[in-house]
Amino acid sequence: MEEMVLKSTIHVAQIEELSDTEQALVRSAIAATDRSYAVYSHFHVGAAVLLENGETVVGCNQENISYPAGICAERAAIYAAGAKFPDTPIEMIAIAAKNGKGELQEYPISPCGICRQVMTETETRFHRSLHILLYGTKKIYVINGIQALMPLSFTEF
């Protein structure tokens, strides 16, 4: 049996180490957490995407008592960007979360599998890697490309 080793490179930063553009996108994601509808989990997530045309589009998680009917912040932002600017590539996404007490998470959260797959499809669609910023008050993960989070993704066949 052959062994295959998969490695990911994730940079760890503080907010002041980010570019002005990255910091602004993170602030947009943080602000979006206040608009989430998370009455069941009390876990508020915000996402912001920066498009090639300079536009920023935000999304936040929206829950429903019928759990499959909800949507994550990442997908809300990506799909809203696609609805408003269907042919404009997404360059960057920032994600932030607050707990049930309304406090920002100290350490970054990671997108769920469905959101990772949507990010994979976004990269495939526009033939470019996403610059991903996962925000936590103590650390920010800076990731160049979804492959670092989902190395064995489902792609077109």
Give a brief rundown of this model.
This protein is an alpha+beta fold. The protein is 25% helix and 22% strand.
In what order do the strands lie side by side in the largest sheet?
Answer: 1-6-5-4-2-3
N- to C-terminal distance: 26 Å
Helix content: 25-40%
Largest sheet: 6 strands, mixed
| Percent range for β-strand residues | 15-25%
Nearest-angstrom radius of gyration? 15 Å
Shape: globular
Structural class comes to alpha+beta
Kindly state the number of beta strands: 6
Supply the number of helical segments: 3
- Write down the secondary-structure element order: EHEEHEHEE
Notes on the protein architecture:
- It is a single chain.
- The chain has three helices and six strands, in the order βαββαβαββ.
- It has helices at 20-33, 73-84, 113-126; strands at 11-13, 44-51, 56-60, 90-98, 131-135, 140-144.
- The protein has a six-stranded mixed beta sheet.
- β4 (90-98), α3 and β5 form a beta-alpha-beta unit.
- The two termini are 26 Å apart.
- The model has no long low-confidence stretch (mean pLDDT 96).
